Amino acid sequence: MANFFSSFLPLLFLLLISSDFPKSFSSDQTVKTFIFRVDSESKPSIFPTHYHWYTSEFAEPTRILHVYDTVFNGFSAVVTETHAASLSNHPSVLAVFEDRRRELHTTRSPQFLGLRNQHGLWSDSDYGSDVIIGVFDTGIWPERRSFSDTNLGPIPARWKGVCQTGAKFVAKNCNRKLIGARFFSKGHEAAAGLGGPIAGINETIEYMSPRDADGHGTHTASTAAGRHSFRASMEGYAAGIAKGVAPKARLAVYKVCWKNSGCFDSDILAAFDAAVNDGVDVISISIGGGDGISSPYYLDPIAIGAYGAVSRGVFVSSSAGNDGPNLMSVTNLAPWLVTVGAGTIDRNFPADVILGDGRRLNGVSLYSGEQLKGKMYPLVYPGKSGVLSASLCMENSLDPRVVKGKIVICDRGSSPRVAKGLVVQKAGGVGMILANGVSNGEGLVGDAHILPACALGSDEGDAVKSYVSTSANPTATIDFKGTVIGIKPAPVVASFTGRGPNGLNPEILKPDLIAPGVNILAAWTDAVGPTGLDSDQRKTEFNILSGTSMACPHVSGAAALLKSAHPDWSPAAIRSAMMTTASITDNKNQPMIDEATGKQSTPYDFGAGHLNLDRAMDPGLIYDITNNDYENFLCAIGYNPKLVQVVTRSPAVCPMKKPLPENLNYPSIAALFSTTSRRPTSKTFIRTVTNVGQANAVYVAKIEAPKGVRVTVKPVELVFTPAVKKRSFFVTITADSKHLVLDNSGAVFGSLSWTDGNKHVVRSPVVVAQLDPL
User: Fold this and answer.
1) pTM of the model
2) pLDDT for position 642
3) Can 216 be counted among the known catalytic residues?
4) Catalytically annotated residue among 66, 105, 188, 216
5) What number does CATH give the domain 31-98?
6) Fewer Cβ neighbours under 10 Å: the N or C end of the chain?
7) Catalytic annotation present for 137
8) Which of 137, 214, 352, 512 is catalytic?
9) Sequence ranges of the domains in the chain
10) Catalytic, out of 549, 564, 576, 601
11) What pLDDT digit, counting tens, does each position of 109-160 carry?
């Protein structure tokens, strides 16, 4: 009888709780995908696995999309809003959040980072051959030369991943270079099945496999770790040798984004789970919020998944977003994420618009078709009519009677730059001039246009439109000048790159740093032409793209090299090495300028500076951060233990004395003062550095105080010995609101450097900002 009850009672329990599930949803019930964060320790012992528990107590098996058990404990499921709200009250459910759609933040650059063939980080790390980079993106085109495994050694023994097969992707598409590939579509398919703006995966233009139908993923993967490819170019532009930052690093691809339809949190979180289990060392994720809103960390699956990875020693590099130059436009703000903005390199693709009055207006273009050969064509600006859609050259907005046989001026914005060219071509135009508005300033990126076209900055755009309005018979032609190397100044902060201050916690400076992200040559898919337009039938092995999406994998590759050279360094140590050695000057030895304004840029634009790998390999000192430090930071910003656990997975115990968020051991310092203070106020910060250079070393503080601010450091000298590798110091910042001269961002900037008088200068930006009271 006892045996009967011991086997019957669990079954009875399952029957009772499963009877609460809705077997079908009525038409008036809103059904969505939700992600549920569950306290894994609460699982009743009668369930052999968490999956059994979830499907018995929370949702029907057919409703569950993913079960998470590595970076996150919980599951995602398609349920009604009512059911989700009910589950949020379950004692084992720590958090519930709706699945969100994310967007992609859509060679010569390795040398521009300070990498050289004979000596330095490339040779000391064997080009990263023992490190595995996981790329979360649109998949990969595995046949490209960039992913050859020629002369690569065996796959690292610790690798536990798989080569998931599917449409036009077989097991042999993986090799000793591309060692793993997976795809995640359940969140996307669920969203499509619920109706609304999300379309299902169109298998006539997309592959239900890791194969890349978009091109973005192939580009980012080869930027991070592409092999040397000789005679590389994009239809003649940027000709030379294409290679990634870590050419021998192994690649594992996690396809979480789908052509024309973005990426879903539930799938991204599943990819984090898989990648950490598989054994990656670095994760590269050029993805961010598509709504311009930064969610709290406990409601942000990218932040949560990244914490789970970082807490296990995996470096996570993310893109800062392309919504610059607006203030507070930076995304991916969690302090355990490395947030990467974009800068230019010393290569450009100039093109000139030649006006009928003889003036030359300087722009850029990657057009490679039949040249105009100096022939002058009538010039027209549809925006003269006052119709916005016509000024933007939107679909079906142009009158062929007005534009046929002419070069058409189109304003930038609202639709893809290359799509405007297609609209002009369909209407019979022979060429296009793409004019920046005030919001884009002078920031230009090259595009592989399908008709003769040139992009102009805001000032030149205004000039050409003024010419059209004042000339009786305006004419123009476009002169394409190919590839020019040795551009000065470079780097320049890209106009589009996401800017600070940090919209969630301004005590943490974001972005962390910038890297090459403008006109980057890398491998491309065969599924679409270089514009990505369905009508573009051209095929190219390489393409040139711009965006923080391109900057992020530069840092991912750099992290692979540093991890290979210093396998005992934590993710925070690797970030510190990059930040404290970053460059703040250009190749004219002048302060970096902002492309958007032409003026000097600030740490809100570039963080700690531009990535300089030659120096990052030997930083001297590093600022390390432990998992416990991150937990204390979450306590410091007001999270209760339950919310901390949502992020960290482990039950949290916040210190009795509430810590200060600005005391997180970050390689930058941001001091916030109230505008209501009528007398000088001070704030004191504590930092700890670890010596990773010569065992016996003495470092002296060098302060560049922000204007109107007093900065003191105690002690001013740090002495290290073989027995003493860590030293702490205090930084006191005193500001008087009456004497502060703030810039347009509401801040002033300086720096604190520790130098050993030899080759090490360990530099941290200092930001002093005034905050208005809420």
Assistant:
1) 0.92
2) 92
3) yes
4) 216
5) 3.30.70.80
6) C
7) yes
8) 137
9) 31-98, 103-190+218-346+490-615, 350-482, 665-770
10) 549
11) 344 444 444 445 444 445 567 999 999 999 999 999 999 999 999 999 999 9
